[in-house]
Amino acid sequence: MPLAFLTHLPVQLLPDSFWEQDCKMIYVARNPKDVAVSYYYFYQMAKVHPDPGSWDHFLADFMAGEVSFGSWYQHVRGWWEKRREQRLLYLFYEDMKEDPRREIRKVLEFLGCPPAEGLVEAIARHTAFAQMKQNFMANYKTLPTSVMDHSISPFMRKGVTGDWKNQFTVAQNERFDADYERQMEGTDLSFRMEI
């Protein structure tokens, strides 16, 4: 029976024994600006994290990799490189939002499942953000407020791309863009900041 598990760990923290299993892996990456915004609200509502402080302070910490799971840049680049030697399907959140059925077909093909149209439609329906936001197995609303306080921010907040434009100032965006260019130099990995 196939086994599936979810992790947010950077590639370098997985044990060598994991890589020896010849697993099929699916990695989903999201553009860093939307990740920073989402993470900021998650830090506020998930009580396992320290208070993030102001948005400007948190953004500086995010850019420096001084948040849980470390540097976003190292995370996405590490998994991007690992795909060259492992059976790893690298997906982008923005692509999933743009054309979920296309991305579902990619996953099914990668897993060796025939992408029957009825199956693709069922998966698209059940994994739509609005549907998952109502699903207690996905939205964490059953957890006590001492763990996740949904009155501060829901776990599943908006599920859109480009929301960073509602949070970043012009100066923050310019600073972030310069840091992004520096941190992503030398890789063919690129992200769309909106669709």
UniProtKB/TrEMBL annotation:
EC number: 2.8.2.-
GO CC terms of this entry: cytoplasm
Gene Ontology MF annotations: sulfotransferase activity
Protein location: Cytoplasm
EC main group: transferase
Major location category of this protein: cytoplasm
Gene3D superfamilies: P-loop containing nucleotide triphosphate hydrolases
Family: Belongs to the sulfotransferase 1 family.
Lineage: Eukaryota, Metazoa, Chordata, Craniata, Vertebrata
Keywords: Cytoplasm, Transferase
InterPro entries, A to Z: P-loop_NTPase (IPR027417), Sulfotransferase_dom (IPR000863)
Pfam name, any one: Sulfotransfer_1
Name of the protein this chain belongs to: Sulfotransferase
